Amino acid sequence: MNMLDILHHPLWAFCAALLALVVRLQRRGRWDPKACNVRLKGKTAVVTGANTGIGKFIALDFARRGARVILACRSEARGTAALEEIREKSGNSDIHLRLVDLSILDSVREFAKRILEEEKALHILVNNAGVSGLPRQITKDGLDASFATNHLGPFLLTNLLLDLMKRSAPARIVTLSSVNHKKGHVDFAHFHGENLTYYMDKVYNHTKLHNIICTNELARRLRGTGVTANSVHPGIVLTKVLRHYPLMVRCIFNFIGFLFFKSPEEGAVSSIYCAVAEDTEGITGKYFDSDCSLVLPSPLARDPALAAKDFEMCERLTSKL
Ligand SMILES: NC(=O)c1ccc[n+]([C@@H]2O[C@H](COP(=O)([O-])OP(=O)(O)OC[C@H]3O[C@@H](n4cnc5c(N)ncnc54)[C@H](OP(=O)(O)O)[C@@H]3O)[C@@H](O)[C@H]2O)c1
Ligand SMILES: *[C@@H]1O[C@H](CO)[C@@H](O)[C@H](O)[C@H]1NC(C)=O
Ligand SMILES: *[C@@H]1O[C@H](CO)[C@@H](O)[C@H](O)[C@H]1NC(C)=O
């Protein structure tokens, strides 16, 4: 028997299916959004990157609960397709598309300005949009494009919407980080694309660390306002997140992912839990794992002195001089 024959053996398929089943059972969340009857009638939510992947299912859940949902997307065509799908599946017509490119600070400012003009309240903000594996690209703001998209754009957006959220309290801010933050480092030169190695998910890992660090600092600053800020890990989820990776990497990810990873719908669960569940009311400055449990992020993500410094640095980088 040669190698290929062994691979064709039905036992392999059986073992793989069994393993997939075990993994599937094991990663079942502790919380089921379908069993949660929290309604969001009269509430307004913004979800960034809501046209695909995890974000689309977060927005769909809010829509089904009766919220007014604003899909913050960069493409009119992709955003409109998601808008129609979410309206149809939820039967909720109070779903709206607003365009924003999170990698461009002026685009974020324009988006926020329109929200502040048009919305009377904002109860939920989900910072979901993100990229991984981008090559080196410096934006017109002088920022590394991955850092701008994953961290500085969402950081500015959150800060610009903060007063509206305070007036709407209780309100919740949920930021999608990743378990990958554990491999990230803090080097303020990174923001400008300096000292970075553009290899696989290395830059992404740094950006996801900053997500947690600044969310924790934000939570400290928001104490007593009724606005909470937390980070979540959605799990390893089969989405288009690797779209900028080599074909071979994507093939392997999709193949393994098909068997073992979460679906985008399952990947949305920890974010929905954090944004709507009664259990999480009042919880702030924490990090939720993909099974909805509270876990400690890496030591760097828990250093309050570093957080204060990072937050100030990000404020400076996103302020209009
Ligand atoms: N998938 C995973 O295994 C995994 C694991 C851990 C954490 N996460 C996090 O989960 C979040 C969602 O990821 P996903 O897996 O659903 O990824 P995805 O399928 O690639 O979706 C990403 C979303 O972000 C949007 N986006 C990207 N760049 C943007 C920009 N400059 N301005 C506005 N929107 C932009 C995309 O819009 P377009 O469609 O227009 O590109 C898309 O809607 C990310 O923050 C990611 O880091 C994912
Ligand atoms: C790059 O990293 C090195 C070593 O980690 C550090 O000494 C240096 O200051 C960094 N560069 C910039 C521009 O900050
Ligand atoms: C990024 O983080 C992931 C998960 O912790 C790790 O497996 C990967 O090796 C890291 N990437 C790099 C290039 O360090």
Automatic annotation (TrEMBL):
GO terms for molecular function: oxidoreductase activity. The keyword DNA repair does not apply. Coiled coil: none annotated. It comes from the Eukaryota. Keywords: Oxidoreductase, Signal. It holds the Pfam family adh_short. InterPro entries: NAD(P)-bd_dom_sf (IPR036291), SDR_fam (IPR002347). Residues 1-25 form the signal peptide. The keyword Cytoplasm does not apply. Belongs to the short-chain dehydrogenases/reductases (SDR) family. This is Zgc:64106.
